[in-house]
Amino acid sequence: MQPLDVAQTVESCFARIHRAALVLTGNPWDADDLAQETFLVLARQADRYGGRSSVYTWLYGILLNLERRRRRRDGIHRRKLQVLWDDRSADPPQLPAAEAPLEVDQWKQSLWAQVARLPDGQRQTLVLRFSEQLSYEEIAGVLRCPVGTVKSRIFHGLAALRRMLHPETREMLQVPGLPGEDLKRAIF
């Protein structure tokens, strides 16, 4: 097998990896960091690409692993801060305002903000399916799980989203253009 051309891979895949990172994190700053970390792993470990999947799906696997580690690390950090806040006073300190409040507010109101609240497996599967339009087989390769598990996570993720949304926003899940096979599986 021919070694990966890192520069060409970055050029051809960065936009899609960055978009997936944006959907996963919900803000452009974390998405930038996560996408760059993904390509740093590529630059350092290009020789580990075995060719069992497309480069694209291999990079998604790296992205999801980095994002999972970041969420775990951030959760530990938040719990430590919460202990400090609880010890000092009943009122936690005010967090600084976002640099782009309109963009953050729009994201919080979006469907992707609701997806971000789902368990990791469902969230990752929905991002790969609907944001990145990967096939079930490609998602199974990225997540290293059976295709049936992918279908189940999509079903349960869509059902959970349906329950989370207000009646007027539930129609977003019925927009033409979403893969019909996914919507048929989610009984609402």
Could you please describe the fold and organization of this structure?
It contains 9 helices and no strands. The model is unreliable at 89-99 (pLDDT under 50). With 188 residues, it is mostly helical. The protein has helices at 6-25, 28-45, 55-88, 101-109, 111-116, 120-131, 136-143, 147-164, 180-185. The chain has 2 domains: 1-99, RNA polymerase sigma factor, region 2, helix turn helix motif (Rna Polymerase Sigma Factor, Chain: A, Orthogonal Bundle); 110-188, Orthogonal Bundle (Arc Repressor Mutant, subunit A).
SSE sequence, one letter per element: HHHHHHHHH
Number of helices: 9
CATH fold name of the largest domain, please? Answer: Rna Polymerase Sigma Factor, Chain: A
How many structurally independent domains?
Answer: 2
By secondary-structure content and strand pairing, the structural class works out as mainly alpha
Determine and state the CATH class of the largest domain. Mainly Alpha
Spatial extent as radius of gyration: 18 Å
Helix percentage range: 55-70%
Tally of DSSP β-strands: 0
Mean pLDDT: 77
Give the terminus-to-terminus CA distance: 47 Å
Q: What do we call the CATH homologous superfamily of the largest domain?
A: RNA polymerase sigma factor, region 2, helix turn helix motif
Poorly predicted regions: 89-99
What is the CATH architecture annotation of the largest domain? Orthogonal Bundle
**Beta-strand percent range:** under 5%
